[in-house]
Design goal:
Blueprint: E1 3-8, H1 16-31, E2 35-40, H2 46-57, H3 63-87, E3 92-95, H4 97-100, E4 102-104, E5 113-116, H5 119-126, E6 130-134, E7 137-139, E8 145-147, H6 153-163, E9 168-173, E10 194-196, H7 197-205, H8 213-222, E11 226-230, E12 238-241, E13 253-269, H9 274-284, E14 290-296, E15 301-309, H10 313-327, E16 331-344, H11 354-364, E17 371-375, E18 378-384, H12 388-398, H13 412-429, E19 439-446, E20 449-458, H14 463-473, E21 481-485, E22 491-499, H15 503-517, E23 521-525, E24 528-536, H16 544-554, E25 561-564, E26 568-574, H17 578-588
Parallel strand pairs: 1-2, 1-9, 2-6, 3-6, 9-11, 10-12
Antiparallel strand pairs: 4-5, 7-8, 11-12, 13-15, 13-16, 14-15, 16-18, 17-18, 17-21, 19-24, 20-22, 20-23, 21-22, 24-26, 25-26
The structure holds adenosine-5'-diphosphate, aspartic acid and magnesium ion.
Aspartic acid binds at residues 9-10, 41-42, 47, 73, 135-136, 150-153.
Amino acid sequence: MSLIVQKFGGTSVADSQKILAAARKAIRAQQQGYHVVMVVSAMGKNTDLLIDLANQITDHPSAREMDMLLSTGEQVSVSLMAMAIQSLGHNAVSLTGAQIGIRTDSSHTKARIKSISTERVQRLLDAGNIVIAAGFQGIDEDFNITTLGRGGSDTTAVALAAVLKAELCEIYTDVDGVYTTDPRALPEARHLNRISYDEMLELASLGAGVMHNRSIEFAKKFGTRIHVRSSLSDADGTLIGSLPESPDHPVCGAAVLKDEARITILGVPDRPGSSLDIFSRLAARNISVDMIVQNVGEQGKADISFTVPKGELAATLEAVEAAAEALGAVDVMHDDQVAKVSVVGLGMARQTGVADKMFHALAAASVNIQMITTSEIKISVLVARDEAHAALKAVHKAFDLDKEPPRNSVATSSADAAAALNAEEVISHLRGVDMEELVINDISLDESQARVTIHGVPDAPGVAAKVFDEVAAAGIFVDMIIQSFNGIADEASLSFTVPKDKFDESLRVADKLTAEFDCQAVTSSPDIAKLSVSGVGLRSHTDVAIRSFRSLGEADINVEMINTSEVRLNVVVDGKRGTTALAQLQRAFADVLR
Ligand code: ADP
Ligand code: ASP
Ligand code: MG
């Protein structure tokens, strides 16, 4: 018999009437012939209230007790849901994470799922019950209760759907699907009919709170189809599957992370091992770092900037100041008034001028770009927090995200069916491996590019737009773009990679711009090697960058540029070291290469 997983978020079970409405949806699915597993979140703002209570007792509640406390929220709602279904004349059994056998690691408040046993759930379903699983929780080796991180019920739902081989995982929430951006932030946001796993993964980790990003990692790994829809209506929502809504559209959505902080370490000795030292200290504290930008300066000293969630700033500074002292760096600066604005789309990998369009939109809105990083399917810029909304509005409009995209002719259902077939293979492939383990499926070397860096470009609105206008006008296709913060007021460095045969042309353009903007200098490398590590879980596993730095450092290879996305880590090194770098990375990731 086919199985469906239905997940109800906090607002969808906020009171008894809503619980009864959710119960009716599950009963209806059962009457249509499905086995039904419900996954339920804590009622309304219950989790927030529990966190508040803990903070009234102490500023530093222990993570283990926090999990013990927070897991009670879900225990309340599963039992009420079971009573609701029973009161409507149907059989239901509620189960906690421990009772199901959702095994996790022991990192309290952000535990990862290792395995899930299906036996008890299956038995209850076969006996005609609707099974109601508590979201967001599991149990570690020593029977301690763990939780998966805020918003983690989505991950419980998709993980259960994966192991139970569900036909579909329905996510019932307070919006009727995934939009081009948060519809609460921008009313002109457009409803998406479908979105690809990779796009949803990026959007979720770049601020689209509608889905927990780790749930999409599961879905991608196991080929689980997800339908995000409203708990208040029966209208179609958004399908998350293997294909994008419109393959011709460069951008499918935009997102903002409002509470970011930037850290810059000035005058770091530019040698292999410096970055490793800094980032391993952060990884040891489980701090996830983003937008890493390294800016090679004069006299063998580099400035390293990166962003962290603002809430992690204090811990970050502690770690970074210790690292700076150990390395003999000159100074550490930070800014906690910044926000990250990103656009995402599978289509941008095949189109030119996408970054340029974003920079233009920001310039027209007089928004200054403090940092830039790009990857194959996303562009992120760091801006002042009070300009974030204007920035989001401007890029949303620039990419016509409020308008219907051209009709999509791809036969989507057959592609999803193919993905589901593939899931069997993945599951057998992963046997014996923890479910949320990092998976690397490819490590590749690209020796076709060169790098150009313009030092000391003015830190003012419109500069990036002007630079990439000139580059595009010369017919040059740019791959990676990184703009760093120099630490010196009103200046930045802009690096980009271009095809080798466009190197001379690119240098001419850079020299012209340098004269025009009165910049310090242009440095370049006619021969770089770009190494790409691709897979699932690259950002939620914070040690991927560290492993790369370590393995390259061991061979005395310096990382010149780096960017990370959910599905790929790219590093640029000296072109002569490409093959060695590839071998080092292959060795470093051998245990997770599948
Ligand atoms: P639940 O409690 O059901 O898990 P969440 O609050 O976690 O619900 O997620 C739903 C919310 O996500 C919406 O109310 C919406 O404001 C927000 N959101 C952020 N980005 C997006 C987006 N791109 N599309 C839809 N909703 C979004
Ligand atoms: N109740 C948890 C939270 O509020 C988990 C969830 O809702 O997904 O974060
Ligand atoms: Mg949620």
